[in-house]
Design goal:
alpha/beta; TIM Barrel; Rossmann fold; Immunoglobulin-like; 6-stranded mixed β-sheet; globular; binds beta-D-glucopyranose
Length: 738
């Protein structure tokens, strides 16, 4: 009895003390490291180990005895995931968690607009804060190595500079809300096929020039507080505990002081998890977890096995302390950061932001003057295609969302032409009829009784007397399309859509094709249609955003964040060794070799001189721009590259001036050009503005693996200024001499 009383009294005394003289760790006004140093010695070994692994599907423990809160993680990256059951992926059925669905990250990337990226981060961070989430699992910035990657829609395109420039303000925006952005998936995780069983074997030059720069910027310029390790292996070791990626590069070379979180189920080994830089293990499918036994989480690699190793001396407390310091930093930066920001959830401004981002990322690929839509009074506008109707927020994997509402394109078009023109819909084809994902349901009925032939015939018949035919099709988020866990097998449009578009082209005078997808598709009918619009999964306001662009309420200014090839076979991945990987004698995991080196995306097509459907950076406007008076001026070891952009058309609009650098005297094979600067400039008709870029030695350099250094070689370079990677308006040579 006496003993029991005593144990009850000690914590009580500690709690009382904490009220009278506030310990440093509880005081948000004290410097971060002081708080960490104050909290750490107060913790027992068991409390420390507990913090390094999950306690539920999306949370990891705090220190209840000390009043240090649990960490709540959430997907990401397009909105706040609905609450899920404690041990399950399925949504829990709460009624207060329907979020604002923001556009997919590929849509954001297509805006080429740093300020919109900050706005996106700010809004989604505020939603996370309101929902009491501490780590937002996003953004994703893996490079578009193959157009087949099922998660292309969740990433920011094929260029490390573009992704790097956009990830920085996103991270800062999220974190300004006291929510950690968890940048994912680190690293060289560029396909979904066998994503947990394939080793990406990449040389250092390729790694540093293509696959790491956006992550480095997120950490060093964006100040990211969290990084998620990826499922795959890199050079033979799993990435959630890959020594080179996590210890040497991320925490060593880049000085990352935040927390490394495993992907869900990405941690695979006790000793490596302890030694190689993983801080929080999440989602592991160890014994019992699938059956949700009450102590499942104690089977995690960083749970009981870790404690045992600490107790018998196989693991050191020093390494554990480093992990716990990082976790404490995360808590102090987020839930214990003080202040009065409690976030905001689904206010009208967030939907407005979503609409603006979605619209500004829509890319006008081609226009023979058919757009913007100007129907005659009472005319018929025929809309054909499943994507005009199908809700797209639900589905796709972990980015699946439960949103407050989603405006479909058909409804938005009906709204805008109400009383002016008749908007009629024909489905044209059946694609994906599912309307639920992880128990989130859209409530739509997508069942269809007509045959494929009948659907096509009905669409063609309806097209005959329509003034405009708007085809709204593309991909969706079902398996083997834009979907986590699977890749596509080709870039050809599914469900017979090419034939349908051709048939419509036979009868329609004004045919507009809107391709809604998150990744490149082939467009063999491109020359037969009047206009082509690339739209994306635009979130809650996707329909409005599309209607804004089609009607000209918003002048399109999006630019492709990836190349739209003519055919898959034109791309750089030619062998199974390159993609999707091979099995080798004596090796447990699939092996994949990045033999194409730095030549992915436009770096490949431009260097090889291979024609594409639409180049990286391409996107038209309803106005026209002139880029003139380009010059390069040297000042020390920098060059000022500038030119004047003029809006020569009759409506206001924005153009993205792009600067590419070409190294013509390199001692190694370098891409024909590489993006090193861009600026989105909004101009009234007749208005002009001088755009200036500063080029430094970093922009001239390539990564020399043998010396492990970036090298700028003296010689001739070219500054290429243009409005896409193919539309270069000025080519100015300049020299760099040591
Ligand atoms: C995905 C991550 C996601 C996590 C949690 C994983 O399957 O790869 O991107 O954040 O699940 O849902």
């Amino acid at each position: 009895m006496k003993k029991l009383l005593l144990t009850l009294l000690i914590p009580l005394a500690a709690a009382c003390a904490s009220h009278s003289e506030k310990p440093a760790y509880l005081d948000p006004s004290r410097p971060l490291e002081e708080r960490v140093n104050d909290a750490l010695p107060r913790m027992t070994l068991e409390e420390k180990v507990a913090m390094t692994h999950a306690q539920s599907k999306f949370s990891s423990p705090g220190v209840p005895r000390l009043g240090i809160p649990e960490i709540w993680h959430t997907d990401g990256p397009h909105g706040i995931r609905p609450e899920v059951l404690w041990d399950e992926w399925d949504q829990a059925g709460w009624t207060n968690d329907s979020c604002t669905a923001f556009p997919a990250l590929i849509n954001l990337a297509a805006t080429w607009d740093r300020e919109l990226s900050r706005l996106y981060g700010n809004c989604i961070g505020a939603e996370a804060r309101y929902r009491k989430k501490d780590i937002l699992l996003g953004p994703g910035i893996n490079m578009g190595r193959t157009p087949l990657n099922g998660r292309t829609f969740e990433y920011m395109g094929e260029d490390p500079f573009l992704a790097g420039e956009l990830v920085v303000p996103y991270v800062q925006g999220v974190q300004s809300n006291g929510v950690a952005a968890c940048v994912k998936h680190f690293a060289v995780n560029n396909q979904e096929v066998r994503r947990t069983a394939t080793s990406s074997n990449v040389d250092d030059r390729t790694l540093y020039e293509i696959y790491l720069p956006a992550f480095r910027k997120a950490v060093q310029e964006g100040g990211a507080w969290a990084i998620m390790g990826s499922y795959n292996l890199y050079n033979g070791q799993f990435n959630c505990h890959n020594k080179k990626l996590l210890c040497d590069i991320l925490k060593g070379e880049w000085g990352f002081d935040g927390v490394v979180v495993s992907d869900w189920g990405g941690c695979r080994d006790d000793d490596e998890a302890i030694a190689n830089g993983l801080d929080i293990e999440m989602g592991t499918w160890t014994n019992g977890l699938r059956g949700a036994a009450s102590d499942s989480y104690s089977n995690y690699h960083l749970a009981r096995p870790y404690l045992e190793r600490l107790q018998d001396g196989r693991a050191t407390e020093e390494v554990l302390n480093d992990k716990v310091r990082r976790i404490l930093r995360t808590v102090f930066r987020t839930s214990m950061s003080g202040g009065d920001n409690f976030g905001r959830f689904t206010p009208p401004e967030h939907f407005e932001a979503a609409r603006r981002i979605a619209a500004d990322g829509i890319v006008l690929l081609k226009n023979d003057g058919v757009l913007p839509l100007r129907p005659q009074e009472g005319a018929k506008i025929l809309v054909v295609g499943e994507n005009a109707y199908k809700m797209m927020v639900v589905g796709g994997g972990s980015s699946n969302l439960k949103t407050k509402y989603e405006v479909i394109p058909l409804d938005a078009l009906r709204e805008v032409f109400d009383g002016k023109a008749e908007v009629v819909w024909e489905r044209g084809y059946v694609g994906d009829t599912t309307t639920d994902y992880n128990k989130v349901i859209t409530g739509q009925d997508l069942s269809e009784s007509r045959s494929a032939e009948q659907l096509l015939a009905d669409a063609v018949a309806a097209a005959r007397d329509a003034e405009y035919v708007l085809y709204i099709g593309g991909l969706n988020k079902s398996r083997n399309q834009d979907n986590e866990g699977t890749d596509r097998s080709d870039i050809v449009l599914p469900y017979g859509q090419d034939a349908l578009i051709e048939a419509l082209a036979d009868v329609a005078e004004k045919l507009v094709v809107v391709n809604i997808s998150g990744s490149p598709v082939a467009m063999p009918w491109a020359s037969r249609v009047g206009a082509i619009v690339q739209a994306w999964y635009g979130g809650s306001e996707s329909g409005h955003a599309l209607a804004d662009v089609l009607t000209g309420a918003v002048n399109p200014s999006g630019k492709l964040p990836f190349t739209m090839p003519l055919a898959l076979a034109d791309g750089p991945l030619k062998t199974e060794r390159q993609y999707p990987g091979v099995q080798e004698e004596g090796k447990q995991w699939w092996q994949e070799y990045y033999d194409e080196g730095v030549f992915i995306g436009y770096r490949w097509y431009d260097t090889e001189g291979i024609a594409v459907q639409y180049p990286f950076g391409h996107g038209l406007s309803y106005t026209s721009f002139e880029l003139a008076g380009a010059s390069v001026k040297r000042s020390g070891k920098q060059w000022k590259v500038s030119a004047t952009l003029t809006n020569t058309g009759s409506v206001a609009g924005a153009e993205v001036v792009q600067l590419y650098i070409s190294d013509t005297e390199a001692s190694v094979a370098r891409p024909a050009k590489e993006l090193k600067g861009f600026e989105k400039v909004f101009l009234q008709p007749g208005e002009k503005r001088r755009v200036q870029f500063t080029v430094g030695l970093d922009d001239l350099s390539w990564f020399d693996a043998s010396s492990h250094k970036w090298v700028a070689e003296p010689g001739e370079f070219h500054a290429l200024l243009g409005t896409s990677s193919a539309d270069i308006r000025a080519d100015i040579p300049f020299r760099y001499e040591k």
